[in-house]
Write a structure and sequence with these properties.
The structure is a homodimer of 734-residue chains. Chain A has 734 residues and is mainly α. The first copy, chain A, has 21 helices and five strands.
């Protein structure tokens, strides 16, 4: 029984990849417009490929070194295998491919969206959203196919027959390598891409818009091509690798915890492990269904409504199917192999946790939208504070960003507490899986934004009629909102996933509690809390430095190449592309290594409990810094955009070019690295550090004293539900 | 024996107050200059008093309500007493008096320093530093006298004979009320004063310097008096209340833990309790000695060197005396009444912890100075990033602030771990006491800065000769550095004090561990981590809003009162003073209540362990946000100041008024609420929440199951020192 159903997982992944291929062909066949447009698009595509090649070259050294270390470490403990190195390499390569697919389709879809926008909004949305869909299906398809396929292969190789066996433990440890590969490439891609895009964006804006007074995306600006390349390598390729890593990590965390569950089912006890993979698989199917609903007919139709309709369709259908799957597969009640891991829980509890996860994700999106949307109180407060200058605009944005942590943290705390009450640690993990199930759809919605942004840039640079830019701007504005809500969603799922990984780490490392009342654990908590600060500092400082180099290069070109401003001479675009490429490759290394090395050093020197304190510190601080930075950046962005249609402050109306608008541009520029470099890296950082801890857990594990029925109070549930009779184990434990 | 030595504590406090009184008289007798200067000084003094009166009126309601609640709660449990309400009121009033003394002397010393600066730098330093000394001795004297005197009275009232008794527990619970009163007034004073001073400062700068192009402290600026009042109510009165609260909390935390120690000494076992009070007492004596060394002879002499000499004298003498006291009072080895609280420790361990505390404090000051001093790499990087505009300046400052958390956190983690290893939880507390012992000197150094700043303002407004302003600027520049290092010191001592209070809370609440592996505790950790973000958000948003109101008022006066710019009409200073006063009183309430109410709500609903998670989250996040904000603000300030003497960027020299300087002014303005409102409030926030937890601990305590020898692994020391044989209890516990 188990045998047959497990094959559905890679098959569903393959289905996603097949649909992706068809949609890719469709986009490629669309009209790419005039020669001038195609020339600009080819600059962008070439720059993006050049960056990816440079990035991959550096990362290949990293993959080889870490692969060798993993192969060696795989020979050291009982339940590990050198095959972990192979899984790691597959994960890393898959993550890179996920980014590559996204980048490739985005650089095709951008110019075709521009061309489509000459006809109608409906057509422009169709092309750009199909581009996004290709990327979403590519990422989700690869993840489900890769993870599912690898899982089957590992079951065969290690001859796994029962869930609670050493062979299964080894198989899962090897599978963790896949996730490590995916997540570490994700981190580098996100940080490198984030530095690239924002260095170019900030640099282009500072000299172009502010000093030279030419519009954004003007061909006279030497940094404009780098800016448009940046959208593709940061917002698309970086995000693709990011979500690939997140998706894999979430499913993996649920599998690892699922392996610890005793379930008397029709699947040889495999149901808690198969469930997350199958939910992810059907999530792909219903994401495809959802895409059918994303269309507008008339010019006046709301793009946001179309996206919401598609999104809700896939979320609701996936939720219903997930509940059905849980009812069909899981037994009525389940217990933990090791009773210290928690109390028994029920099928209904798991279903409750899935629903709770979806509610948490939805609330996070709504809250994020509130804090970053135009016309709402937070953005309007920044708009008003722009009237008294740059400084008050910045104070306003920082204040909004900090305030915006409150509701998400409360929602998250309730989510953690509630999903744990419903189905223990497995509940926390499956809640995250539920949230991530429609990643294909989420990513389609997310990725269409930068495609539309690029399309607008090409329209501007090609001097197409006003109405074309109007249509792409419409899409771009919606894209900004979806980008912000996507980040809220990502951080929530990352927090739950990290906690599940953290719990898995505790299980494997053999510790029974992480007691912050111990001085060394508390010291670990402090060090962990500091990591997101230094990580963010390095990332935004890198953007600042690279942007300055960009500014100086642009100023030099304006000075030394006569005729640029009169369109008589062509700027040296490639020099600006090279600055962004080199800076981002160089500067992504340090933050990446901090994330990878710190848990190893702390774990081996101070042991698993201090490492647990470190992880808790990183998770809490990382979630806070992620929300703070992403929302502050999003709010600043839309505060600036508010001036485009004119805003009333104290009875006076201000437009673009007014003093308050200039202050708002400053805020937007500060927010750029916040929302696109350091902020969204936080969710990868916290997961990656947990995965590293999980990988080294067997090597730093505390010896297990075979003791029964004493000292089992460490993972007690806090409040025993009245209607649930305690099991004999639980009674002994109290 | 105990009887006689305990009286030394209030006597040493009284000595401090006596010397303060003499110095107060000396300052009062100095020449206050011409009528014009005295008129300006009287505006400032009147504004400051008006603010304090308004603040006290609001706080008196708070004190009455909380006092009644405490009186009622004092009747509920075994070891509490309604007298806690009396102690609370005394603490609150003392804290207010500490702020009042500071404000009173500062508004006398400011104009007298201006007058002295007409003669020589030596005289100006003498007057301003003596003003600072009055405040330092006032705060420390009141704290030691109040705490020591109250302690003696409580011993009599409750008839305490032995340390390990219910009477002693009650006495200490009542004493905690004193600390609660002191620290809660400190929080309101710091936040209220911080909002006041920065609203006025930002508002005055934005219109005066940036829009109207008139210098800082120009009589034509309607907000200039409010700005100078702000220095006194924020940097002086706020800081006085703050350090009074910190000083008391630190000593109290050591007393609470000292009560749990079994010490066979010559003081009826009271030595671990008497030691922190006596160290604080002798700290006052050696602070007085240190002040003798703070003088310069010639105009060219370094003020910083003179301050360093005085500071080091008092620190080294106090350290030597503290070691002597520990050797004389403490027995060779000590153990905990409840063996779960930790292993035995030695007299040498306690001495080691005191020394470690001083080293941690010193390192924190040095690191803070590095990150905020002119000419060093961090500030220079911000200076360079000012050349590409407002946005890159802000990115640079935020990045420096985040980076500046790394070394302090590592030092702090080592301090926590090391002092715990040396003398358990008592070691952590006594390390903080050692650091705080020379508070009188620290505060004298801190408080002379705003006095010199004010003196410069009066010189400017009175159009005194250039050389007068030159002398006060010299003092003011040194004051900026000492203000920054003082904040580094304050946050380090606050972190250690919070941990000691946290440990005391764990003891009283009867929990055995705070296990973040439990979902509810982890949820508490998240909520706790978020508190410093919302607190900071409220504080800086309040500054932003009040500054905008100020800007609009100043613009209105410039518009509606003709002749201001030609010195023909006098601005309506009092309107600006009223704006700052009202805004700060109104806006200080919400952040203060969050700090006070959250632990009560979480503690009563979710119990002590979740509250423990909350406190850990607040402490870690608060320390990080405190360091980040204070250092970013300090670095921005000095980046701006760097332009006054001219800075080289890429081979070009920029001065005041250049574009890069304007960008640096933006950074400085953003940094103002960071470094003077939200940043320094963090250390009060984390301590206050721990004190509230300690107060409610008996009410939410988990019932103690009288069980011996099982489940005692929760507070194990992490590494048993090789040379220390485990006690029988410890062996059973493992």
């Amino acid at each position: 029984m188990k045998e047959s159903i497990v094959y559905f997982v890679p098959l569903l992944g393959l289905l996603g990849l097949l649909v992706m291929f068809i949609k890719y062909q469709w986009v490629s066949k669309q009209d790419a417009g005039e020669a001038k447009m195609q020339e600009l698009a080819s600059y962008i595509a070439d720059g993006a490929i050049a960056f990816l090649k440079a990035e991959w070259k550096v990362l290949s050294y990293f993959v080889v070194i870490v692969g060798l270390l993993l192969a060696y470490s795989g020979t050291l403990t009982e339940h590990s295998s050198p095959l972990i190195a192979v899984a790691f390499v597959i994960g890393a390569v898959s993550s890179a491919i996920a980014g590559y697919i996204g980048m490739k389709i985005a650089t095709k879809a951008n110019v075709r969206t521009t061309q489509a926008a000459r006809t109608s909004l409906a057509k422009a949305l169709s092309v750009s959203f199909t581009g996004g869909t290709v990327m979403g299906l590519g990422v989700a398809g690869l993840a489900v196919f890769g993870l599912g396929g690898l899982f089957i292969v590992l079951l065969k190789i290690f001859g796994v027959v029962v869930v609670d066996s050493g062979e299964m433990k080894t198989a899962i440890e090897v599978l963790t390598g896949f996730s490590l590969g995916a997540e570490s490439i994700a981190l580098f891609a996100r940080v490198g891409g984030g530095i690239y895009t924002k260095a170019a964006d900030v640099g282009a804006d500072l000299v172009g818009k502010v000093e030279a007074g030419i519009p954004e995306d003007d061909v006279r600006n030497p940094a404009t091509i780098a800016d448009n390349v940046g959208d593709n390598v940061g917002d698309v390729a970086g995000m693709g690798a990011d979500l690939f890593g997140s998706y894999v990590a979430t499913i993996l965390a649920t599998i690892v915890l699922g392996q610890e569950i005793k379930a008397v089912d029709n699947f040889d006890g495999f149901s808690p492990i198969l469930l997350p993979m199958l939910i992810a698989g059907i999530g792909i199917v219903f994401s495809i269904v959802g895409t059918w609903f994303v269309k507008v007919k008339k010019e006046m139709d709301s793009v946001q409504t179309a996206l919401n309709l598609g999104n809700w369709t896939s979320v609701i259908l996936t939720a219903i199917a997930a509940i059905g799957l849980a009812k069909w597969m899981l037994p009525e009640t389940m217990s933990w192999v090791n009773p210290e891991r928690g109390a028994d829980f029920t099928q209904n509890g798991v279903i409750g946790a899935i629903i709770l996860g979806l509610i948490v994700g939805m609330l996070m999106s709504i809250i994020t939208e509130y804090y970053t949307a135009m016309g709402k109180r937070p953005v309007m407060s920044i708009v008003r504070q722009s009237s008294t200058g740059h400084a008050t605009n910045i104070i306003g944005g920082l204040s909004v960003g900090m305030e915006s942590t409150v509701l998400p943290i409360i929602v998250l705390a309730i989510g953690i507490y509630g999903s744990y009450e419903l189905a223990g640690l497995y509940g926390v993990a499956i809640a995250a899986t539920g949230m991530m199930a429609t990643t294909a759809m989420q990513l389609a919605i997310d990725a269409f934004g930068p495609i539309a942004d690029n399309a607008g840039g090409i329209a501007e640079m090609s001097h197409l009629p006003e109405e074309v830019r109007g249509r792409t701007d419409n899409l771009d504005a919606v894209g900004n909102t979806t980008a912000a809500t996507g980040k809220g969603f990502a951080i929530a799922s990352a927090a739950l996933t990290s906690l599940a990984l953290f719990a898995a780490f505790v299980g494997i490392s053999g510790i029974k509690s992480i007691d912050i009342y111990k001085a060394n654990v508390l010291a670990g908590l402090f060090i962990g809390g500091m990591i997101p600060f230094i990580f963010s500092s390095l990332a935004i400082a890198a953007v600042g430095r690279a942007a300055m180099a960009m500014v100086e290069e642009v100023r030099r070109q304006f000075r030394e190449i006569p005729g640029i401003m009169e369109y008589k001479a062509k700027p040296e675009y490639e020099k600006c592309v090279a600055i962004s490429t080199q800076a981002s490759i160089k500067e992504m290394v340090a933050p990446g290594l901090i994330a990878l090395i710190t848990p190893v050093v702390i774990g081996f020197i101070f042991g698993p409990e201090v490492l647990g304190g470190l992880l808790a510190g990183v998770t809490v601080s990382g979630v806070l810094m992620g929300i703070f930075q992403s929302n502050a950046g999003g709010a600043w962005d839309n505060a600036k955009k508010s001036f485009e249609k004119g805003v009333d402050i104290n009875g006076q109306t201000y437009f673009k070019g007014s003093e308050p608008h200039k202050a708002a541009v400053t805020g937007d520029t500060v927010g750029d690295p916040f929302k696109d470099t350091s902020g969204p890296s936080m969710n990868i950082l916290i997961k990656l550090m947990s995965i590293v801890a999980l990988i080294i857990a067997p090597h730093i594990a505390q010896p297990q004293i075979p003791e029964v029925n004493t000292e089992t109070d460490t993972i007690e549930i806090v409040e025993t539900p009245v209607d649930q009779a305690p099991t004999p184990e639980a009674v002994n434990a109290e």
